[in-house]
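Possible race condition, two jobs.
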Amino acid sequence: MEDRNELGCWLTLKMHEQHFMISVDHVVELTKTTGHPIAELPGSPPAIVGTMRLRDKLIPLIDLRIVLGLPSMREETKEVIELLDSRRTDHINWLNELESSVREQRAFTLTTDPHACKFGVWYDALMGDEAKLNAFTNGNLALRAVLEEFADPHAQIHQLAVEVTGLVGEGRAPDALAHIVETRETVLGSMVRLFDRAKQITAELRQPLVVVVESDGVRAGLLIDEVDAIRRLGAEAFDPVPGELEHSEYVTAVCTRDENRPLHVVLSVSSLIERLAGALRRSDREALHAEAA
């Protein structure tokens, strides 16, 4: 296996709830994308997302998720924010429909069960599964706290329909409308702020880390989700690549011998750089040309 010696050091990485390892022999440094604008390069392969200036040097960036056939963090984040936006709009429209049903003297047909609406189904599944919740929040306590705050106002919003129906049944439609207006300004307003806060934290939180690596004089930054640890392992810790493992051109072994840890896939930085070397050098030249222009 490439880079493996009697006792090697390995940087363990995490992406999309999967675990990987690369040899520290190729690692130059770790940094964040925060504070380092990424310049996109039109025409580059999808895995090369652009360049980043680091201490007066342009570093081409490789989205390791895309290389390995995983959804990019950018796309995942976009989907989460779109989901939150959609569920926010659902509840605004739900309350508008409740008001219209009272004004037009017709039955309200949307769900009054907070566990049955689209948000409720998603929310219950997320909050009821600790592993899913930790993955969604990336362990961030602020986002977790925001999610927990949804429970009460969400239940109150749906309870409103029951209360409004009762008021209408008693011939108190004006009181029902007043109750809706008050709830829109208070409870719904609280939910809208929670949705907006959840989107903000999600966008801030889901920023990839950069592992700057070098092989044969070519330097690049690997975009990953998070770094786990540095481990010292001997040859006995590794097994051959399973035949069914995808993207085997970048995979040299798997580490399965530690029963207290999940399976880690060992990635070859040399193979990765060699495979993308032409595109990396071209992206570097194009970035320099763009800066000069």
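Job #2 (started ~2 s after job #1):
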Amino acid sequence: MAIPEEAGGASGGSPIEALDRGLRVLEALAEAGPGGSALGALAQTLGMNKSTAHRTLAALRQRDYAIQDPVSGNYHLGPRLVHLVDRHLDRDNLPGLLSPALARICEEVDELVHLGLLNLPWVTYVAKVEPERAVRVWSRVGSRAPAATTALGRAILASLPSVPYAELRSTLPAAGKAHLAEVIAAAKEQGYATEYEENEPDVACVAVAVLRHGHPCAAVSVTAPAERMGPVRAGEVARTARRVLQDMLPPGLAVVATRPSAVSAAAATAGLATG
């Protein structure tokens, strides 16, 4: 079935036809999936003649936006597109990309929300949204805290294939490696990490990791007075943050999966009071 051309401009056609053809070819290659598409099938799908499709593909291949399999002759999306996506989702762009989601989380839970990045052995605060209610917690964008003792850092660490304890040694909590291993195990089970008065008296945090292509790239936390962030509310806040992020994260970003059956057990064995 041919992919229809969308109207554009006063005449109903694209204002830049060559660019429009190139974009339509890229969309068709994306739809074709890992097997790619032969020239004839691609031209038929797009409703254009083969010579036009071939010229368009040649231009895309020249810039690595499309590649051709030397064996099958099929065309595929090229590595340049992956590079563009990675640049768009780069750490430096995350505060802007996640700003709407941070604002929505803050609105729904009415607490202070942070976005943090891991810079071992620290976590750096790169964005925050303050609630309308008075905030009793001081924070500053650009400041940093030990990854091992913050919910932000623990959420990211729990999403790594293995915890880099050697790099965290200088900033481990007073209880040491065993305690950190316990709270990270709980974070893996729950799908969120917690911290209770380990950095500031009377302050508690809960955080959810953000993944890029399956790997942790950041975390979002909610910070509140400890009196308002007991274990039950921590779970509720984490679920709210996860729901909002799932709905509002741009393509290419996701939240870490949870294990619903283990949430209650993890909260009982390593709840806020232990981490």
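Residues 23 and 56 are 10 Å apart (CA to CA).
Logs attached separately.
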